[in-house]
Amino acid sequence: MSAQLQHNAAWEASPLAFLSRQFIEGVPKIPKGVTLSGKTALITGSNVGLGFECARQLLALDLSHLIIAVRNQTRGDSAAQKLRNEFPEAKIEVSLVDMASYKSIQNFVKWCETLPRLDIAILNAGLSRPQFERSDESKHEMTCQINYLSTALLAILLLPVLKKKRGTSEPAHLALVGSDMSYWAHWTGTSDSIWDTVDDPSSWSSNGAYQISKLLLIMFVGKLSEYVSPDEVIVNFPNPGACRGTEFGTDGKRSKIEQFWMSIAKPIVGRTVSTGARSYVDAVAVKGKGSHGSFVGEGKIKPYPQFMYEPAGKALQETAWNDLMKELSFAKPLEILKGSN
């Protein structure tokens, strides 16, 4: 488990480790004999990019029922049709969820409760904003809203569904898509509250906000895993690595450093979309109970960010958890989680 891998944390945050992940370690092929026949999976943000490619790879493993969870019906339908053409034997449907709306997330989970079966949930939807922007609903910074707050709400609400609807004695899988950019997150605030830092436009940067959102998310995964048995639901944090050929982070006016990364560096060092998506598949179709609550990458269990092993990081993890429970109190998350034990 990641909690026992502190000795490797500093290395994973180094530039050499990043290059090693991208060029040497890679992501292993899915072992022969792995099958998802009879199973149902949902993937958020799956009409394009890594989410769409993950859907293809799950279907290639004989997944019986795929749910494309997106915010735009037309784009979802287009993606679904492409997959139906390639995998005519599978049941593929589209369901709407707007990750910027807590109400939409709650309604989506109510729909999931009507499914006859749900074995796998991959929470892939995320964003990186070019300028500081607040959520109209919560008033929190938008990158944190989508990548952390809304993803955490969806994960908590899906836990009882996955427990109840998993079709076999095997545990269900809940993967919250991560990033090795969490290794480089720099927390500049105190451990009294996350909001003073997250919602402060004066110290905001696009890259920094994304890194912080993924740091908070892996902290959440670590805490969430304490509330659910891996015998019922395995919760993990797959890292696709830097991938070329996606639309992610290409919108809006970016800094010169980000423009250089997107236009020159990423095409050179980036993985293919197929390789990145295979990290998701590995997390939900290959990895077992040993990955519960852990950072998963390159087919291995990886350490948490170094900061999480330090006293200040542990204090921030507790603060972030308490702030999250207050933010999501309308959904009674602690009652749900206590019922998951």
From TrEMBL:
<protein>
    <submittedName>
        <fullName>Short-chain dehydrogenase reductase family</fullName>
    </submittedName>
</protein>
<dbReference type="InterPro" id="IPR036291">
    <property type="entry name" value="NAD(P)-bd_dom_sf"/>
</dbReference>
<dbReference type="InterPro" id="IPR002347">
    <property type="entry name" value="SDR_fam"/>
</dbReference>
<dbReference type="GO" id="GO:0016491">
    <property type="term" value="F:oxidoreductase activity"/>
</dbReference>
<dbReference type="Pfam" id="PF00106">
    <property type="entry name" value="adh_short"/>
</dbReference>
<keyword id="KW-0560">Oxidoreductase</keyword>
